[in-house]
Amino acid sequence: MFCRFADRADAGRALADQLKQYAQRDDVVVLGLPRGGVPVAYEVARALGAPLDVLVVRKLGVPWQPELAMGAIASGDALYLDEELMRETGVSQEELDRVLADEKAQLARREALFRDPQRASVDVAGRVAVIVDDGFATGASMKAAARALRARGPARIVAALPVAPYDAAERIAGDVDEFICVASPELFFSVSQFYADFGETTDDDVRAILARTSPASGHA
Fold this sequence. Notes:
The protein has 7 helices and 8 strands; from the N terminus they run H-E-H-E-E-E-E-H-H-E-H-E-H-E-H. The protein is an alpha/beta fold and 220 residues long. Helix 1 crosses helix 2.
C-alpha cells in the first residue's frame, strides 16, 4: 500500500526527485495549478532551479454534485468537457451555461489576484512546460490546463503529479507529451486520502508563495 505524503511540500519534494532530468536547464518552466498545486510546484521549481508561474484552472462541477468534475476551464479560454459524464448525469445545456458563467467569473477574479502588475506571465514559447498539481481524480483540470498552455507554443508539455489513479496517463495522453507521477495506486478514492495533511490552500497562501519568487524571472 502506498504511504501518504506528509503534506503538499513533502509531495513536491518527492515529485522533484522524479523530474531530475529537467534540473538546471534554461528551457524549463514550472506551472502550478492554483490553489493546491502551487505549494507542490514551488518545491519542484526550487529543486529544478526553474522559473515558477501559475496557470489558473477552474473545475466545472455537476450542479448537484459540485465535487464531480464534468469539465474544466483555464486561462486563455481553454475548455474541456466530459461529454460522456454529462450524458450520464443528465446535465442540460442551460445548467452547463450557468456553471460556466460562474466559473469564468471566478477564473477572472483569481487571474487578477495572482497576476499583479509586477508579475507578468513567464514565457513558455519553445520551452519545456511542467504543469504541477497536488494530484487528480478525473484529470479534467489537467486537460484544460494543457490545452490552454498548448496555445502558448511550448516545445513540450509535461504533466507532473504526486499521485493519480492507475489509468491517469491514458486519460490525458492526447493532451500532454509526457506524464510523470510518483504513485498511481489502483485503490483510489480521492486525492486527500494520500496526504496526512491536506488542509485547504488559500488565495493568500498562493500569493505568499509567489511573493517568495522573483517577479522578473519567477525563480523559486
